[in-house]
Specification:
Elements: H1 13-25, E1 38-42, E2 45-48, E3 53-56, H2 59-62, H3 71-81, H4 95-107, E4 114-119, H5 122-137, E5 141-145, H6 154-159, E6 177-180, H7 200-203, H8 205-211, E7 218-223, H9 239-249, E8 253-257, H10 271-274, E9 281-284, E10 295-300, H11 301-304, H12 320-335, H13 338-359, E11 363-369, E12 372-377, H14 388-400, E13 403-404, E14 406-408, E15 414-417, H15 425-452
Parallel strand pairs: 3-13, 5-6, 5-7, 7-8, 8-9
Antiparallel strand pairs: 1-2, 2-3, 4-10, 9-10, 11-12, 12-15, 14-15
Length: 453
């Protein structure tokens, strides 16, 4: 049975009315990718306020890996509601926080003693990871990467790469942040090819210590194992091992930002496992809370204990409802084969997307790990000029035909897939059919324009 059900013109009258109210009540800086207002969500689909139903390939920007409103998660939240909502863990702590920290210490990569801090959001977790790294190393500098995204707070904006719309107009940013190229093989900064490049981009870190910032001043290197907002760029399999070896050679910590790549998205519980690495500090959020706000900083015990008592915390950080939901999410990953499902969905996408790449020059690159997949759209496969306008047209076509998609990339020319891992084969195929129709429509339109010119 088809999941997509369209009863009105998209957006429908109720969504249009809410858009008008929004324009009067909400600042324009809080933008949204569609003009659709949600009334209900289940598993891998959404229903809007006009009764239209969509397949969800955005997953709340990666917050719904386990699916929307999973029964076990809802039951856990209801159980906590009957006990208490808030006491502040820094005043009167509770067992749920401790139990979740114990679970995170067990499931994250690394066969060493660990401790976990909970906060509210991915950006807040990154901020605390930086604080902890500086407290432990007694060094000020942080190295981040081109095309990285780490959040919208002032410290995380300093770490984030993309200027518009994230950084423009908000300067000055905190200092002692340095940026180096990422292993973006499709757009290699050095015009090299893997594997003949011998991972020059990773080894170039040594040159950075000579020409940009002294290694003895660097507290940590922070990286997303797979770029999120930067375009779902997955480095070569041996990239991070080389990078981390260089970090540890100079007593520099490695922080893995797995806010978007964590909790099954790449076909492993954490993308770090796909690369065979054990980060000194691991940052998680999004799907950890099963739909509620929660983020974690997990790291080696001696590192996590560096800040003095009172140096870490937050009024609502690790709130009891979110901790209960997260414990249920971890149970789901243990009980259900969601990791295998991520790989199955990824393979299903890759088969279709490779055919699109052969069929349409608009599709420049197809890439990803597990269920973290994307296509990069270009004007020409030879020049690789970003097709940003065409990407907007495709996303609009998709939501007008019952599929919610989300873009990414420094040039906003990447369409990424964050479909909940509980999606059925039928839902996945139906969504891919819409995306294929969108590519065909925009590619045909491009061809007509080119002929006219």
């Amino acid at each position: 049975m088809s999941t997509i059900r369209l009863l009105t013109q998209i957006p429908g009258p109720n969504s249009r009315a809410l858009s008008a109210r929004r324009a009067q009540a909400v600042p324009r800086g809080l933008s949204h990718g569609t003009p659709i207002y949600v009334a209900k969500a289940e598993d891998a689909w959404l229903e809007d306020v006009d009764g239209n139903r969509y397949i969800d390939f955005a997953g709340g920007i990666g917050c719904a890996n386990a699916g929307h409103r999973q029964e076990a998660v809802i039951d856990a939240i209801r159980g906590q509601l009957d006990k208490f909502l808030h006491t502040c863990v820094q005043v009167t702590p509770y067992e749920g926080y401790i139990r979740l920290a114990e679970r995170m210490n067990e499931v994250t990569p690394g066969k060493f003693p660990k401790k976990t801090l909970f906060v509210n959001s991915g950006a807040e977790a990154v901020e605390n990871a930086v604080k902890i790294a500086r407290a432990y190393t007694k060094r000020p500098a942080i190295i981040a990467f081109e095309d990285a995204f780490h959040g919208r707070t002032m410290m995380t904006l300093a770490l984030t790469s993309k200027t518009h719309p994230y950084k423009a107009g908000f300067a000055p940013f905190p200092g002692e942040v340095y940026r180096v190229p990422f292993a973006y093989c499709y757009r290699c900064t050095y015009n090299l090819k893997y594997p003949s490049c011998d991972l020059y981009c990773a080894r170039h870190l040594e040159d950075t210590f000579k020409r940009v910032v002294a290694n003895e001043e660097v507290a940590a290197v922070i990286a997303e194992p797979v770029l999120g907002e930067g375009g779902f760029v997955a480095p070569p399999p041996d990239y991070f091992k080389v990078l981390i070896d260089l970090c540890h050679k100079h007593n520099i910590l490695f922080i893995a930002d797995e806010v978007q790549s964590g909790f099954g998205r790449t076909g492993a519980l954490f993308a770090s496992e796909r690369y065979g690495i054990e980060p000194d500090i691991l940052v998680t959020a999004k799907s950890l809370g099963g739909g509620l706000p929660l983020a974690a900083v997990t790291g080696r015990t001696e590192i996590m204990d560096a800040p003095v008592p009172g140096g870490l915390g937050g009024t609502f950080a690790g709130n009891p409802l979110s901790c209960a939901a997260a414990l249920a999410v971890l149970d789901l990953f243990e009980r259900e084969d969601l990791l295998a499902r991520a790989n199955e969905l990824g393979d299903r996408f890759q088969r279709r997307a490779r055919e699109w790449q052969r069929r349409w020059p608009l599709v420049g690159d197809v890439r990803g790990l597990g269920g973290m997949q994307a296509i990069e759209l270009v004007k020409s496969q030879e020049t690789k000029t970003p097709a940003s306008d065409e990407t907007k047209q495709i996303t609009q076509y998709c939501y007008e035909h019952g599929l919610i998609t989300i873009t990414a990339g420094s040039y906003s020319n990447v369409i990424r897939v964050l479909v909940p891992l509980v999606a059925t084969n039928e839902q996945m195929d139906e969504g891919l059919d819409v995306l294929e129709s969108a590519l065909a429509a925009v590619s045909d339109k491009k061809g007509v324009v080119a002929q006219l010119v």
